[in-house]
Design a protein that fits this description.
alpha+beta; 3-stranded antiparallel β-sheet; 1 helix; Gamma-B Crystallin, domain 1
Length: 149
């Protein structure tokens, strides 16, 4: 009796474990890596067409931790586009402050979080689509100006 029960119990446990395995491709955007940008990160790229090969930086937290970087000390220069692969939470939008390479003027833009089924919603370009130097990354809630929802 025990010899028949143990293999049956092992088989039942093994099959039960299979029911909890998600099917391939069932992963949502909030847990995936897109364009070389890990889930929960804000990434910067050297081209308008973003890819893992053109990524030059990423951050999952505010940067710098206080104030702003200076244009000369920022490691994020020659940036051409942004992607927010943040996860749905209280602060899932990014205010990115940058210096335009053509005019030297300071700008701030909101990069919305990429939504499931709409990666484009998390992809933004600097004002004028010029090269910029990022001097501040600030994770905010969606109602913070200029995000406004």
């Amino acid at each position: 009796m025990l010899k028949k029960f143990i293999p049956a119990a092992v088989a039942a446990i093994s099959l039960a474990g299979l029911t909890f395995t998600p099917p391939a491709g069932a992963e949502s955007l909030s847990s995936s890596r897109e364009y070389g940008c890990d889930s929960g990160d804000f990434c910067m790229y050297t081209t308008e067409v973003i890819s893992a090969q053109t990524k030059i930086g990423d951050h999952g937290a505010d940067w710098p931790t206080r104030g702003e970087s200076s244009e000369g000390k920022s490691p994020y220069y020659n940036v051409r586009s942004f992607f927010n692969n943040g996860t749905a939470q209280t602060e899932d939008h990014v205010l990115v402050t940058y210096i335009r390479g053509d005019t030297g003027s300071r700008h701030t833009t909101c990069v919305h979080r990429a939504e499931d089924g709409d990666l484009g919603s998390g992809h933004e370009w600097p004002d004028g689509r010029v090269y910029v130097t990022v001097i501040k990354i600030d994770w905010v809630n969606r109602w913070t100006s200029p995000c406004n929802g």
